[in-house]
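Why do we care about 3D structure at all? Because function follows from shape, and shape follows, mostly, from sequence. That is the central idea of this module. The next example makes it concrete: a single protein chain, its amino acid sequence, and then its structure expressed as tokens.
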Amino acid sequence: TYLVISALTNSQQTVPRLWVTPAQQRWASRLPMNTVVLFVPQQEAWVVERMGRFHRILEPGLNVLIPMLDQIRYVQSLKEIVIDVPEQSAVSLDNVTLQIDGVLFLRILDPFKASYGVEDPEYAVTQLAQTTMRSELGKLTLDKVFRERESLNSNIVHSINQASDEWGIRCLRYEIKDIQVPPRVKESMQMQVEAERRKRATVLESEGTREAGINIAEGHKQAQILASEGEKAELINKAAGEAQAVLAKAEAKSKAIRLLSDALAEQNGNAAASLSVAEQYVSAFSNLAKESNTVLLPSNTGDISGMVTQAMTIYSTLAKQRPKVERMKTKTDEPSEEPPVQSTAAQ
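And the structure:
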């Protein structure tokens, strides 16, 4: 019966109540009554004093105490505690006043230090978080405050842990919920953002114009190169065609001359040559008045036989001079046979 009454009394006394402090609000358990048998809930640590002096910390589960000598002095929760850090003002490095609030996550690691190291550990950690936040914000400009929120949070956690180790409390993380700036500063920031947007748009537009101009110029360049290459290929092909035509004409003329020389060397070749010259003379004479109104005629125009005889005489003279030139070249190419000169000593 005594155990049942003790358990009921314990359950009634550990009902959470709202504990209001100037810094924060949280739920805390009342101190249980001193009975012989106590049941400690999970994730709680009960600090027991014997005759006013620290005796031991009760573990979760069944525990037995001496009613008159032992007394439960503190009840510490080992769960992760979330504390809302109220809004506060801070001045940045560039003298801008900011209103910042945050959330603090901490846990009690050592119930003995949390009970005897500080009067109210959670209130102390909250005040430490506020002062640390103000000092860290004073090291940064307004622009860096918005860009480096994670580094700011980690610096605040590191500073809190350095001081809270003596209190048996471990700060797990700190998060900034909201940052409020003055209206005028907010308007200037909005104007700065708009100017930055316009600058980016202008830069992008200029880059697009530059790329378009480069592409157009590159296209004109390629077109001119291709056109010049086409003209070059056309001229080369035309020159090659003309060269081949000249070579073909020269070869044809050379063959014709060989055939003509062979024909003249045969019997009655002079008569055939005379006939050909006469035919060409008559043909040329018939075309004199077709190309121009002015015609120059020799005195003996009607003497065809005289013209043929004159042409054949020129041909005979050239034919006789050619063998003489060939004989002179042959004599010049032959080596001279001179007697060797003997020296005076040999004579």
